[in-house]
Each structure stands twice: as structure tokens, then as C-alpha cells.
Design brief:
The protein has 38 helices and 19 strands. It has about 900 residues and is α+β, with helices and mostly antiparallel strands. Mean pLDDT is about 80; it is low at about 1-20, about 200-210, about 315-355, about 515-520 and about 555-560.
């Protein structure tokens, strides 16, 4: 029997560290002595000597490791890194890791030390050398416990660096057995985690190259020899070698020197005959080979390793055999009795999927720029699954925040309202692709199905199809003939075109998930254009290109180029695949955004809903259309339906929240914006949106709290405008003018339209502050900016409305009224219930400025009963100085009174 720390005889040796003299205390720890008076030494190696000691404060036995003096004294940076990693290791708590109690330094000598849990038992190395190799069952149980510990270490950003048989203590679970046998119930403890390496945090990667080799060559990963940055896959390699030793009593790669071991590793010729001679099951043999892969990216991660170990266990095979036997018995029983109806009802009742979420696939490719490829594969699998009526599939936008192997799957499942999770990883090297997937029941944390696919890039569509089929079969989802065809679609034979297409899909997803920021949509368009240039018959790429152009064509100040491009791309998609869901989606968006033919768009999206029953896009689009038609309650119902399929989609949550806001249901809007902030804390656009709601209710103090961080450099024009509105309602014109002047001087506007509106707002504030001359000069600058835009696009209602405001500040009544009325003609409320009423409010404001009070009050009376974008409220009428010319009018005063519910 041995107690304490594993030996380090196999580590690369340095000079023996200075041993403390008898009776020397290290803090509260006093080294124990043997009967002959010598120090009770447990082990020694390159890093230091380990002693049995007593914690005199808590009166408990510990293993005390005294670190070689020069280990942490090479430089100030080395000392700081050493202590930072030591503290991280001390914070690690797991039942399969020997606990590190304390790190410290003996002031008299400058020697570092750490105290850890004293383990009574024998090491895996001692067990194998004493009684020979372990059987597969015992080895798998050891591997499962160590994998669980490595997952915990990974979460804390630590890698062990010296995982080996001598650092795995085997303790009998009954607490009595001295020598562990194949039948002993084992508890495994990883020891010597005190000098683990931090793999996260603020560590200079260059410093890694200065670290000497730490580890045991026979079990070290190839990257350890190269002094490369390490992650958990280095420990997984060492675990593979350790399990190999447990099963065979040998190491997979041998050599008389480090160089010979490195050479053997690089050959990648794993001696599988050793495993065959030991009669190791095929699944376990295959797993060990993958764990010992030369490239880290080719090894399984901790979650995949846990899943594959579970499938390797004899219990898993027994369970499968039991299910098969039970199924056979049921079939025999049903056949003998002739209970066909009972059989049908039994099968129907057993189908319960409870929903599925596909988490972001991990990019294991050597090139981090290949992250788009992993994201694109995830998106394509989701598209296939969305066609299955019996599956509730959560949309991609709700799962994107769960990057990086989340651990609390049960909580994520609860947030998304599903029972099942699909996790995956994608590794791409040149034209080779490896995809790993595992389907997990998050409620029970049990693995339902998993598989690994190694294919050429040209066959990636087959992988997507097989994964989708594997999921549907595992969840017992029934497929119609059309659904089977949708799963098997192969959109292009050109891998380069597909690569460009996946880039476009990823750019577009980032565009929508980041509140339409940056030039991501333009990048998506470029990628889709590249895809169709490489393969003119790529129908889906044509459809996505049409949608992307249509999205850009409907904005204020937009040119007609995007509209024409959307039309051309749509026509190509219709020629190639007129009835595909992707083409119909493109048609629906074109009808909605470009033609503004809402009736036709509703019909088209209705057709798509039958083809993609689990897609949140369809109810989302129908919600937008219903809102344009003034069907606000129906619109909200559609958004809620979409949120059931996409509950953590910030864009969708925001759309629904604005719908409530513009419908003047402010409490409901605030709740949805709070859900956005749960996902994207302190997002400035959402914070400003909440401020706008409080402004509409006349609660300026509450509104101000959400606008404190917004300044002239804020990238969101909408958030900045809400800040200026706050200052206007507070009648703080000087600060508003200062901010506007700074923004016009410093900010790079996305378009001349945005700049012209900035100039308009400054002119308005100057007039309110009493600087009429300055207001006129600024308004003339706004006119010069906006007039060319209106000349180029005389049917652009937004340019017409903005230009009318410039003429107001210049005192040009006739021109101002003419352009305001022109804007209403271009976009009447009957055509657009969202923006149309705002143009009527613009006209009422101009009428107010020129003394046409009765006409203005009549319009305002009607608008108070109308839902629309940025609606007026009694509170806004009371507070906003823009309406000051109407204050003495009794009819206006009545409008300012809050109506009691």
C-alpha cells in the first residue's frame, strides 16, 4: 500500500531539490518523521519532494509537496504566473481530484510548497505491475471518472500536464479493500494537480515557449515536446496512453530517449496488435486510437469522450440487448394475440420528442477562420429538421449564445423549452471534414445517440442528411415522403460554391443577431454572389442572395439597385427550384419588402409554413406583415408564436417588444426588453428602447437612468436620437446642441440621409434654444445634404419627410407643407400602418409651426387612437416643447389628459 502523491521517477530529471531538515515547519504544516527519525518521504521527482505531514491547525494528515527553489524564481513574470496557476488549481474541487488545501512560501528559504489531500490506496501503475492488466470494464470505469475530472479542470481553465498511471490513485469505494482487483468498486483520484497549467486568462502565449518540459515522456502529448500551448486534449492524449497501459501493461509509444518517443508518435503507427492480443472490444480500441491522434484537433473533447465511453461500457451493450429482446417479445405477443389496434395506439403514445435544440457546433479546425464552416453546417442541419412536422426545433438564433461547450444543459433546455440537445464539432483540414454529433436528453443528462463522420468536403451534404435522419429516428419522429426528400437535398456539386454559401449564411446570421450592425449584410451578399458565380445552378444561393438584397432595399435612403438585384436573383431561383421552401421564402420577402404587396406575401408565407413547420421565420414574417396592415393584435400573436420556436432570439424579442410599445402596451414591452437584456446585458440599443418607453409615459427620471452611457460616438443612431429626445423633453438644449455638434464633427455616418437628419435635429435644437439664425444656417446645410437624395428618388417617402423639416426651419412654409403631403401620398397609412401615421404627425408638427392649430389638433386627436411607430401619448404632448404653440388651446389641453383605463 502507498499513501499520498504519485511518484515522478519517469519525469525528466533535474537536480534534486533541497530537502528540508528534520522538524522544519512550513506554515502550519509539520513534516512527519519515521521511527528512525528520518523525514517521512512519499515521493520525489523533477518538481520537488513530497512528504507526509500534519496540519497542526486542523490536526489532519496531508501530503506536503515542497517545490524546487528555481521552479518559480526564474523571473517576476514566472513567479506571478506560477502563483496564479497555483491559486486556480487550489480552487478546483471535484470528487475525482485530490483536493489542494493551500499554497504558500517559506519566508526563510523562499521555497514554495503546497498541501493536498492525503490519499490512502495504490496507484494505477502499482496495481498493473502488481497484478497485471485490468479488464475493459474496470478500465472504462476509471476512464469515466478521470474524464469527469478533466471536464471540471477544463471549466476552470487548467490542464494537468502529467497525467499518467502513477498519478491516478485507486481507492476502494468500500474503504476496506487494500489491493484493488477487477471486481473492486473503484474511486479514482487524480493527484499532483497542484502544478497544473492555466490555459485561459491573461497569460502571454510567448511565455509558454520558455517553460521547460514538464511531464512524463512515455505519456506526454506531442505538443508538450514542442512547448506548444496546451488545452484539455493534451491531457486526453495522456489519458489514452494511461488507459493503454491499464489494458496491456505497456505504453503505446516507446523509446530510450525523448527524441525516440517523439519519432514514434509522429509515425502515428499505434500498435493496435497489443489491443487485439488483449481482446479489447472494437469500440474501445477505436476510441483509444482517436485519443492518441497526433493532431490535438483530431482527439475527442471531454463531452464527446464521456459519450463514447458510455457507449463502450458493457452496461450500454446490455441495455441495447435488453431493448431488442423486449421489442421482440412485444412483437411476438402482439402477433400472437392479433391486437393490431392496441399495437398502433401503443406506438403512437410512445412518440414524444418534447422539442430539440441544436447548439452551436464547435470549430476544431486548425484555422480559426473556419468557424463559419461549423456554423454553416449547424444551420443546414437545422433547415432540414425544420421541415419535419412532428419535431419542434428551436431556431439557430436562440442557440447562438451557447458557444463553447456549455455545461448546464438542463438549464439551457429549460430556457429554450425543449428536452433534447444536439451538440457537435466540425473539423476541416483541406478537403477532409470530420463531424462529431451527440444527441442528449438534457432532463436526464443521458446520451440518446451519437456518431462520427469522416468525409470528403464533396460529401458534406450526405453527412447533413445522415445526421438529420439519425435525430429523427432517435426521437421517433415520423416522416412523410416530402419530408424525406427535404432531408436528402443536395443543393450543389461544387464544394467551393458551397463554402462561399456557408460564409454568406454566417455573415447574415451575425447581422441579425447584432441588431443589424456593421456591413455584415453586404458581406453576405458578396458571399452569395461568389457562390452563384461558381455554380449558376445553385438555387438556394440565388434565393438567399435575393433575400439579402431585399433586406437592404427597403431602408430609408436606399437606392433601387438592391431591389433590381433582388428581383434578378429571385427569378433565377424560381427557374431552378420554383417550389422549394428557400425560393418561396425569397419570393415572400420580395413581395413584402420590395413590392409591398402584403396580400401576396401572406399567401406565399402560408405555403412556406406547410414546408417548414418548425421555422420561426414564417410567423415572424407574418407578424411583420400584419403590423404593416394595422392588425396589431394579430401581429403580436404571430410574434409570440415565433418566440415559442425561437425563445432567445434577440431580434425577434425586440420586434415583439416594439410591437407592444407601438400598440401602447408599455408593461408588456418592458418585460420583453428585459428578456433581451438577460441575453445581451447592457445592450445600448435595448437600454435606449426602455428609456423611450419611459419617455412615452412621462417618466423622465426612469428614462434618464438608461441613457447615461450614450454619447456622440454611440454607433446606434436610434439610441443617440432617444438620448437627444430625452434632453429635449428635459429642455436641456445646450447639452443637446453640444452632443449634436460633436457627433456631426466626429461621427462617420453610414449614409448622407443619416447625416442630413443629424443636421436637421441640430437645427431644431438651435431654434428651441432661441438661436434662429444658427438654426437657419444648419437647416440650409441639411437641405443641401437631403435635396440630391430626393431628386434621385422622388418616391422615397423618408427623404421627402426629412426635407420638409429642413424647409420648416428655413421658414419656407409652402415647400414644407408640399413635401410633407407628398410623403403621405407616397406612403399612406392604408399602405403602411407602421410608418404612415408618423408622416401624418410630421405634417401636424409643420402645421403647428405655421399657426394652423385646428388642423394640427384634429390630426393629433386621431393619432392618439392609432398604433404606429413611435406613437404620441398624452405625456409626450404635455412635455415636448415642439407642441408649445398649442398649449393655450383648450382642445389641446384635453388631449394632454391621461385617459383612465
Amino acid at each position: 500500500m502507498r499513501a499520498g502523491i504519485g511518484s515522478e521517477e519517469e519525469t525528466v530529471h533535474d537536480s534534486t531539490p533541497e530537502a528540508p531538515e528534520g522538524g522544519i515547519r512550513f506554515g502550519v504544516y509539520e513534516i512527519d518523521c519515521n521511527a528512525d527519525g528520518s523525514l517521512c518521504e512519499l515521493g520525489r521527482g523533477a518538481m520537488g519532494i513530497t512528504y507526509r505531514a500534519t496540519d497542526t491547525s486542523l490536526q489532519r494528515k496531508v501530503a506536503l509537496k515542497i517545490i524546487k527553489i528555481d521552479i518559480a524564481e526564474r523571473s517576476a513574470d514566472a513567479r506571478e504566473r506560477f502563483m496564479r496557476e497555483a491559486r486556480a488549481a487550489a480552487a478546483l474541487r471535484h470528487e475525482n481530484i485530490a483536493t489542494v488545501y493551500q499554497f504558500g512560501m517559506r519566508l526563510e528559504t523562499g521555497q514554495y510548497f503546497y498541501a493536498m489531500e492525503l490519499i490512502e490506496g495504490e496507484t494505477l501503475e502499482e496495481r498493473v505491475r502488481r497484478a497485471g492488466p485490468l479488464d475493459a470494464r474496470s478500465t472504462i470505469k476509471i476512464a469515466q471518472q478521470v474524464t469527469s475530472a478533466l471536464a471540471a479542470a477544463e471549466k476552470h481553465g487548467l490542464v494537468h500536464r502529467d497525467l499518467k498511471p502513477a498519478n491516478l490513485m485507486l481507492v476502494s469505494a468500500d474503504g476496506e479493500t487494500v489491493h484493488v482487483t477487477n471486481n473492486t468498486k473503484l474511486l479514482v483520484k487524480i493527484i499532483d494537480f497542484g502544478l497544473a497549467k492555466a490555459i485561459h486568462g491573461q497569460i502571454d502565449p510567448k511565455s509558454l515557449t520558455h517553460d521547460r518540459f514538464v511531464g512524463t515522456p512515455a505519456f506526454a502529448s506531442p505538443e508538450q515536446f514542442e512547448h506548444s500551448a496546451l488545452d484539455v486534449r493534451s491531457d486526453i492524449y495522456s489519458l489514452g496512453g494511461t488507459l493503454w497501459f491499464a489494458l496491456t501493461g505497456k505504453t503505446p509509444f516507446v523509446g530510450r530517449s525523448m527524441e525516440e518517443i517523439q519519432s514514434a508518435q509522429k509515425s502515428n503507427a499505434v500498435p493496435v496488435e497489443q489491443l487485439k492480443a488483449a481482446h479489447i472490444p472494437h469500440r474501445l480500441k477505436s476510441l483509444l486510437e482517436s485519443m492518441l491522434a497526433f493532431e490535438p484537433a483530431s482527439r475527442p473533447g471531454t463531452r464527446e469522450l464521456a459519450a463514447r465511453l458510455k457507449r463502450c461500457s458493457p452496461e450500454a451493450g446490455s441495455a441495447r440487448r435488453t431493448r431488442v429482446a423486449l421489442a421482440a417479445s412485444l412483437i411476438a405477443l402482439v402477433t400472437a394475440a392479433g391486437w393490431i389496434v392496441w399495437k398502433t395506439e401503443f406506438i403512437a403514445r410512445s412518440v414524444a420528442t418534447n422539442g430539440l435544440a441544436v447548439l452551436p457546433f464547435e470549430n476544431l479546425s486548425p484555422d480559426p477562420d473556419n468557424a463559419y464552416f461549423a456554423a454553416g453546417i449547424q444551420d443546414e442541419i437545422l433547415t432540414r429538421l425544420a421541415s419535419i412536422a412532428t419535431l419542434k426545433v428551436i431556431s439557430r438564433t436562440s442557440t447562438q449564445q451557447y458557444q463553447g461547450k456549455p455545461h448546464n444543459l438542463r438549464e439551457i433546455a429549460k430556457q429554450l423549452g425543449v428536452a433534447n440537445m444536439l451538440e457537435g464539432s466540425v473539423q476541416r483540414v483541406a478537403d477532409q471534414v470530420r463531424v462529431n454529433v451527440q444527441l442528449i436528453n438534457a432532463q436526464t443528462d443521458s446520451h440518446i445517440w451519437a456518431d462520427t463522420y469522416d468525409r470528403k468536403l464533396t460529401d458534406i451534404f450526405g453527412v447533413e442528411t445522415e445526421i438529420a435522419k439519425g435525430i429523427t429516428e432517435s426521437l421517433q419522429a415520423k416522416l412523410g415522403s416530402g419530408e424525406e426528400q427535404a432531408l436528402a437535398v443536395k443543393p450543389t456539386n461544387n464544394p467551393e460554391a458551397y463554402d462561399a454559401y456557408l460564409r454568406g449564411v454566417t455573415f447574415e446570421a451575425r447581422f441579425y443577431s447584432s441588431f443589424f450592425s456593421g456591413n455584415l449584410e453586404e458581406k453576405a451578399i458578396s458571399s452569395f454572389e461568389r457562390a452563384v458565380q461558381l455554380d449558376p445552378n445553385f438555387a438556394i444561393a440565388w434565393a438567399r442572395l435575393s433575400r439579402a438584397n431585399a433586406a437592404l432595399s427597403g431602408g430609408s435612403g436606399a437606392t433601387g439597385v438592391g431591389r433590381d438585384a433582388a428581383k434578378r436573383a429571385l427569378e433565377n431561383a424560381q427557374k431552378l427550384a420554383p417550389n422549394s421552401p428557400e425560393t418561396l421564402l425569397a419570393l415572400g420577402y420580395y413581395q413584402y419588402r420590395v413590392l409591398r404587396d402584403y396580400g401576396a406575401a401572406k399567401t406565399t408565407f402560408g405555403r412556406v409554413s406547410k414546408l417548414l413547420p418548425s421555422s420561426s421565420e414564417v410567423p415572424d414574417a407574418l407578424g411583420l406583415i400584419a403590423r404593416r396592415e394595422g392588425q396589431w393584435d394579430q401581429s403580436i400573436a404571430y410574434f409570440e408564436q415565433a418566440l415559442a420556436l425561437d425563445p432567445r432570439n434577440v431580434e425577434l424579442l425586440s420586434l415583439a417588444a416594439w410591437g407592444y410599445c407601438w400598440h401602447r402596451q408599455f408593461p408588456a414591452a418592458l418585460k420583453l426588453f428585459d428578456r433581451v437584456l438577460d441575453i445581451a446585458p447592457n445592450d445600448p440599443i435595448t437600454m435606449a428602447a426602455k428609456a423611450e418607453i419611459y419617455q412615452a409615459q412621462g417618466k423622465l427620471k426612469e428614462a434618464d437612468r438608461f441613457l447615461l452611457e450614450i454619447n456622440q460616438q454611440n454607433p446606434s443612431g436610434e439610441a443617440f436620437d432617444i438620448k437627444i429626445t430625452q434632453l429635449r423633453l428635459e429642455r436641456n438644449y445646450s447639452e443637446a446642441i453640444q452632443l449634436l455638434q460633436a457627433r456631426l464633427a466626429q461621427f462617420r455616418f453610414a449614409s448622407k440621409y443619416d447625416k442630413g437628419n443629424g443636421q436637421l435635429t441640430l437645427a431644431l435644437m438651435q431654434r428651441l434654444a432661441g438661436d434662429t439664425a444658427g438654426a437657419k444656417v444648419t437647416a440650409e446645410q441639411a437641405r443641401d445634404t437631403l435635396e440630391p437624395l430626393y431628386r434621385d428618388q422622388p418616391d422615397d417617402w423618408a427623404s421627402a419627410a426629412s426635407l420638409s423639416q429642413a424647409y420648416v426651419e428655413m421658414g419656407e412654409k409652402d415647400l414644407a407643407l408640399k413635401l410633407a403631403e407628398r410623403a403621405i401620398t407616397i406612403l399612406p397609412s392604408s399602405k403602411d400602418a407602421v410608418n404612415g401615421p408618423g408622416l401624418e404627425e410630421n405634417l401636424a408638427l409643420i402645421q403647428t409651426m405655421f399657426g394652423e392649430n385646428n388642423r394640427a389638433i384634429s390630426t393629433l386627436t386621431q393619432l392618439l387612437q392609432t398604433s404606429y411607430y413611435g406613437p404620441i401619448t398624452p405625456a409626450l404632448l404635455r412635455l415636448d416643447p415642439l407642441w408649445d404653440p398649442l398649449r393655450s388651446d383648450a382642445a389641446f389641453q384635453k388631449l394632454c389628459e391621461e385617459k383612465q383605463p
